Every structure is written in C-alpha cells, then in structure tokens.
Amino acid sequence: MNRTDRLYGLVEELRAASPRPRSARRLAERFEVSARTIERDLAALQESGLPIWAEPGRAGGYVIDASATLGPAGFTLDEALAVLIGLGGLRRSPFRQPAQTAARKLLAVMPEREAARASAFASRVHFLESDESDESDESDESDGGAEGDERTARVPAPVDFAEALRADRVVQLRYQDAGGAESVRDVEPLGSIENGGQWYLIAWCRLRQGVRAFRADRMLAVRVTDERPPRRVLRAEDLAIPYGRLRSVVDD
Question: Which pLDDT score is estimated for 239?
Fold first, then answer.
C-alpha cells in the first residue's frame, strides 16, 4: 500500500472506530508498517487540518472528531445485509482487501443500532469452502481456457490481479501452468471471469498471439508496466466457453 492509500485508510479506520480511540500499535498492525510510520502519517493528517487528536493513557490512542465522520447511509437492514454478504463472498478473490474496507465503511456510516443488527445477521451466513483440490486439472491458458478447471484454489488469488485488471497497461506475468512449467508472459488485460470460486484474467497473450485465460492462483508474480496496450475488443467467442452464460456484475 502506498502512502496516499494508507493516509486515506487511516482516516477511514478512525472514522469507523469513532468515538473509540485506536492506538498507534493497533494501526501499525492493521497497515503492516511501524508505529513510528503511523505517528508520522497521523501528524501529517493533523497538519492538513483534520480534527484528529491523541488521548493519553493505557486505553488511549488516536481519535477523529465525530463531526468529520460520514453521515448515515440510506440503506435498509436487508440492503446492508445483502451488501455485506456480497462483499464477504470476495474473501478469496483478488478484490478481498477493498471488499473488507468497503464493509467497514458501510457499517461505519450506518446508525450504530442498525450496523450492529446488520453485523449480527451477516455473522449467521457462511460460505462452504473446500480445502481439497481436484487433481484432474485440465488446461488453463490455452484456447481461452476458462472452461476446463473447477478446482478450488488452496491459495488466494494475488491482490495484484486487481491492479492488473484496472491499470490499462501491459502486464508481465510469471506464470505456472497445470504441469508446473513456468513462463514469463507479456499480456494485455481485457477482463476477468469468476467460475466456481476460481478467478481468471482474460488477456491478449503476446507470446501466443491470442486471447488466453490465466488462473489467478497460478500467477507467481504480477508486474504492471508503463506501456499502454492497443485497444482490443473482447468477443465471447474468443473465450471458447462451451457451456454456461457470461454475466457482468453490473447487469440488472
């Protein structure tokens, strides 16, 4: 996380906790930096004019003025529950970190009583996740390839996957195929598909000179370059999916 994102995250963390204090140690653990770095960041936020102050004592910490917190969100209880469940479903996805912060923000801006009820109801919903993998694994990046693999990943998809999808840049992948062979690919991201808990980056592969589907949990390294790719149009027939229907997350 870069410093700008961390500063924004600190404000949101303090807003979510308000009026309770957050210690520098706890914030440091949350953002995986030193307590000294957190103290410098908070000092910078204070200098910028944000109403943040330190409460002394063992139970003290940093607090943001309640007047700086967001107003109540206009969600009904059922709407908030639906959003929390949807975000919880991204726990193993490349979007798990923003999903977690979005859930905290949602609860932070709701009236306290409604937020507590939404959290309590959401805690009753569980996802059944298998720790086993299907070793009859087929192709993963040839001829589109999103159709041949329903294995549940033992490792979460890399968070860099999300950056690769939104960066509008050529991405260099260090990738391991189904047989364990590694290769380095320069690819042009076109989209993403989720299938049975498995995430794929759909991209134009410069090595293969065609559209390929790269499984997220087989990405050993992801590096976003500075090169802008040429504009390409992704067609459903390019993916060679023999069954099922692709549905965008923004469809009604």
Answer: 72
Dihedral, CA atoms, 86, 92, 93, 99, nearest 10 degrees? 50
3-state secondary structure of 6: helix
10 Å Cβ neighbour count for 236? 10
- Segment among 6-20, 39-53, 164-178 with least mean pLDDT: 6-20
Q: Residue 234's closest CA among 140, 144, 139, 141? A: 144
**Which helix or strand (DSSP H or E) is residue 163 part of?**
helix 160-166
222: helix, strand or coil: strand
How far apart, in Å, are the Cα atoms of 240 and each of 117, 146, 164, 187, 235?
45, 8, 22, 18, 10
Q: Where are the alpha helices (DSSP H) in 123-159?
A: none
Structure tokens at 150: 């329903």
Classify burial at 226, counting beta carbons within 10 Å of its beta carbon; exposed 0-12, middle 13-18, buried 19 or more.
Answer: exposed
CA distance 235 to 211: 10
At residue 23 the predicted structure's pLDDT band, cuts being 50, 70 and 90, is very high
**Two tokens, residue 60:** 């003290």
56: number of Cβ within 10 Å: 8
Cite the beta strand spans of the chain per DSSP E.
Answer: 52-55, 61-64, 171-176, 182-195, 198-205, 210-215, 219-224
> What residue type is 96 in one-letter code?
R
Give the pLDDT score at 28: 93
Q: For residue 249, how far is the Cα from the chain centroid?
A: 15
Contact by Cβ (8 Å): 64, 73:
no
